Amino acid sequence: MPTTPLIAPADAKRLRIDRVRIGRLRQPAAIFAMLTSAVLAGCGEPAKPAEPALAAAALPATAPPATANTSTTTIQCPARGAFGDGPTYYSQFYEDYILGYVFKNQKTGFYVDVGANDPNKSSVTKYFYLAGWRGINIEPIPELVEKLNTSRPEDTNKGVAISDRRGVLIFYKGLGDASGLSTLSPRIAASHRAKGFEFTTIKIPVTTLNAVLDEHAKDKPEITFLNVDVEGFEKQVFSSIDFKRYRPRVITAESTAPLTEVATHQVWESILTGNGYIFAMDDGLNRYYVHRSQESLLPKFIEADFCVLRDKLGKRINLDGFEPLDPAPARR
Q1: What are phi and psi of 231, to 5 degrees?
Q2: In 3-state terms, what secondary structure has residue 99?
Q3: What is the mean pLDDT of residues 184-210?
Q4: Residue 180: how many CB atoms within 10 A of its CB?
Q5: Which residues 6+ apart lie within 8 Å of 145 measured at CB?
Q6: Within a 10 A sphere around the Cβ of 171, how many other Cβ atoms?
Q7: Of 48 and 259, which is predicted with more confidence?
Q8: pLDDT tens-digit series, residues 9-36
Q9: β-strand pairing of 156-158 with 277-282
Q10: Torsion of CA 235, 241, 247, 252, to 10 degrees
Q11: What are the residues facing 173 on neighbouring strands?
């Protein structure tokens, strides 16, 4: 779920959600170097034609002279601004920034947000709702469903959790600022409690994503993107979709264990790749996938990745996660 800023009672000054310790090696320096030299050619001089002597030697005398390919790609990166709730982007990290770039030429679309949490704070879909898109928000916490109904009257808001089977489960609801850590996993809840976060338990209805889509998305021409942020229950969510019937163009999912640097995508990624999805990008917190029928979107993710890396440089954030490049001063 998108999370509001969290402060652990035992270490209030060290842990902030905009500096969550999430580091997964992506060889960021190499990526940035390649993008700078290859993709940003349009920001500098066009490629130079081959030297005439070399070109003549390589071609038969009857062949026409070679023409250099001077086509370039110029990337115009939108300003991300500070992390927080607006005024342009609202997600906790780069989620709506990336998806907004990829779909910048699409005026309307349909989203499905599993683990929607608050409709205004750290929301992945608020940017799109304000732009005229509509979709389905799935959120099990009753108070947040009420907020969704108030703020998103033209969306479909479901007060359930998603799993691979229907029924009733115990839900560990985070109290106060720990709302974004709420989970169906007793193991994850116990880990958070050990760090000082408080939880209460409630019984909630659970259903499959197929059931929700059968009820509310059968007549939709497409699911533009599916966002999954369910604090350790991603495998159950992806296992509940019949990808032959419902095929989101893009899927994004939080892909680290909550509040840790441990990558978790290896637990569930094979479900996506086995159903025709191609890895497109990792922003350090989330992974993005494109269905193979939508491969034309991949260049947009390459461009968005460059914009994210450049913004991280400006913010002095490690290119492979959330860590600040400048270490915090020692506490006295």
Answers
A1: 50, 60
A2: helix
A3: 88
A4: 24
A5: 139, 157, 158, 159
A6: 20
A7: 259
A8: 333 333 333 333 333 444 444 444 444 4
A9: unpaired
A10: -30
A11: 200
Q: What contacts 238, CB < 8 A, 6 or more positions away? A: 228, 253, 268, 271, 272
> Model-level pTM?
0.78
Mark 295-326 as b/e (b = at least 16 C-beta within 10 Å): eebeebbbbbbbbbbbbbeeeebebbbbbeee
At 331, list the tokens. 């506490």
Fold type of domain 91-315: Rossmann fold (3.40.50)
CA distances (Å), 201 to each of 141, 165, 175, 320, in order? 11, 20, 10, 35
Alpha helices (H) along 152-283: 186-194, 209-216, 234-239, 265-273
pLDDT in tens, 52-68: 333 333 434 444 555 55
Joined together, the tokens standing for residue 134 give: 């509509």
Is residue 136 within a helix (H) or strand (E), and if so which, with residue range? strand 134-138
* 316/304 Cα distance (integer angstroms): 18
Query: Which token pair is 206?
Result: 């659970």
Q: Distance (Å, rounded) from C-alpha 173 to C-alpha 187?
A: 13
Closest CA to 68 of 46, 49, 41, 42: 49
DSSP 270-298: HHHHTTTEEEEEE-SSEEEEEEGGGGGGH
pLDDT band at 329 (very low <50, low <70, confident <90, very high): low
Cα separation of 7 and 11, whole Å? Answer: 7
Which residue in 224, 277, 22, 18 sits closest to 112, CA to CA?
Answer: 224
- DSSP bridge partners of 201: 172
The answer to whether 249 and 225 are in contact (CB under 8 A) is yes
